[in-house]
Amino acid sequence: METHKGVSDRGGRTFQRFSVDTNESLHFEPCEDSSPSPTGIEHDEDNVFIKDENEENFGRQEQHLEQHHNDVLQTLSQRHNERAAGLVEEKKSKMEALYSQLLSCGQALDASKELIETAQEIYRTPDKRVFLKTVMPIIKRIEMFAKEKVDLTLSTKLDFETPQADLSDVKTMMDSVNAVPAPSAPVINPQMSNSATQTSLRVCWSLFSDDTVEYYDLYYRPVLEDTLADGFCQPHVSTVKVKETHCTVTDLLPNAQYELWVTATNTTGISPASEKALYMTVPSPPVIKQRECTSCPDAALIRWESGNTNPVDSYTVELSEMDTDGTQSSITESIVAVPTCQCLIQLLSGRRYLISVRAVNIGGPSDKSDAVYISTSGTFFYFLEETAHPCLSISEDGFTIFYGDEELPISAMALDDSAFTRCVAILGDLIPVRARHYWEVEVDEGTEFRIGVAYEDTERNSYLGVNGSSWCMRHILSSSRHKYEFLHNGWSPDLRITVHPVRIGVALDYDRGTLSFFNVNLEQHLHTFQCHFRNLVQPCFSLDNPGSLTVHNGIEAPEYTFI
């Protein structure tokens, strides 16, 4: 694990560590106090700003009026052209009607002239017989012509129609000459890092420079999983009215996703809504699982629960060393970009630390979790409760197991896959570090037990020490004496221990490949297994008859245990 450190004053500047899974570290910028400027200078700057803003507004208004003037002239010109084209069409229609009527009158005059000339010609005929023979048809033609009435009235009016012109759009344009145009849709900005808290969001947006806006309406609502699945169940939309192009929305849920959009309003109207943007509030603080935190002189394994419904981007583990007088050091180290809910931290031996965790998303880091106290004077662990045989119970402090003599009902014998079924045993949660580990076990004199180490996947339907995945010291109580065996794969060397050990020390050394047992009160070596552990092992404890067993850990290993 790479680290990056710096010196800090008592003000509490934060040190950085790279996490195992990232090449990025937190970035800090010095915050320099800016000295206040004289009042006169600030006032002059305000005046200059107001003057520039007025000139900019005047320029926009002038450009806006000129555009309106051009639009009105263009609309009136279009109306004139349309009306002139209509008059030309009406004139053409009237002329065609009059021309047709004149043709009809001309044809009637020609027919009348022809009849008159024909009648005169017959009248002048000297031959009476010819006259009588031809006069009757002419008379009939004259009678028929006389019956035909020629309409001499004009078929079309000489006056042109003057329909009322529809200039409502021009009137609307003229009425809006003194108004500013409605603003365009604002552009909401993506969420910036560290722009949120657990219950608030800072939202920013922008607008086109030539738009005039009186105020903005910011709309927001939570994005719920049920909403995504069922579009008909939309959460309530809240609204905030603001003057600036930014707003801090409060009273929100922690680590929640919100959908936001904004509109701009002036005297003319409301702009279209901006595109929707998604923002996240900061997560709630994680919850450290103290019963699942383990340590040794070289490291600590910290586990925690997210404490949030929605996933977070990463976690930051912060640790500060405790001074000799018990006060917390002002120097803090951070391990950033931790992807999961646990972190193995390299520490210095013989020190005391306070460790806390923050959850991080795009909105920023959460508040610190409640700190856990870690001492690296010795190996510290709790029992793995899920591995316990149903007949075992664990004390409230988590360091003593009890095997009662009462029989359990069948319903209570329901076993987890990881629980021991034959041997009344339990495993310890040792930190996964190949180093030196030491703990002590205290057992009543009249209790038969097995203590040692085993692989995590050791057979649950088997006794400790009778297989190749466990090494243990066994105490057998007989009527005459205490018998002790050091079992592995069902075999034990022939050893005799004369003094019953009340408190037994267990020393595990991965580097040497040894597992040793000691009589703590006498500082007496009992036995050492020489073995090469192919995998990490866990402490194991078993009671072969009713009684209790207490583990003492977190203590410094005596010098004689690793000689």
Secondary structure layout:
Elements: E1 3-4, E2 16-17, H1 39-123, H2 128-147, H3 168-175, E3 187-188, E4 201-206, E5 215-222, H4 225-229, E6 238-242, E7 246-249, E8 257-265, E9 277-280, E10 287-288, E11 294-296, E12 299-305, E13 314-322, E14 328-338, E15 342-346, E16 352-361, E17 364-365, E18 372-375, E19 383-384, E20 392-394, E21 400-403, E22 425-428, E23 436-443, E24 449-455, E25 470-477, E26 482-488, E27 503-509, E28 514-519, E29 524-530, E30 537-543, E31 547-552
Helix pairs in contact: 1-2
Can you give me a brief rundown of this structure?
This protein has 563 residues and is an alpha+beta fold. It is built from four helices and 31 strands.
Description:
Residues 361-560 form the B30.2/SPRY domain. Residues 186-285, 286-379 form the Fibronectin type-III domain. This is Fibronectin type III and SPRY domain containing 2. The protein has four domains: 43-175; 187-280, Sandwich (Immunoglobulin-like); 285-375, Sandwich (Immunoglobulin-like); 383-562, SPRY domain (Jelly Rolls). Helices cover 21% and strands 30% of the residues. It has four helices and 31 strands. The protein has helices at residues 39-123, 128-147, 168-175, 225-229; strands at 3-4, 16-17, 187-188, 201-206, 215-222, 238-242, 246-249, 257-265, 277-280, 287-288, 294-296, 299-305, 314-322, 328-338, 342-346, 352-361, 364-365, 372-375, 383-384, 392-394, 400-403, 425-428, 436-443, 449-455, 470-477, 482-488, 503-509, 514-519, 524-530, 537-543, 547-552. It has a seven-stranded antiparallel beta sheet with strand order 20-21-31-23-27-28-29, with no helix packed on it. Strands 19-22-30-24-25-26 form a six-stranded antiparallel beta sheet, with no helix packed on it. A hairpin with a 4-residue loop joins β27 (503-509) and β28. It is rod-shaped. Mean pLDDT is 83; it is low at 1-43.
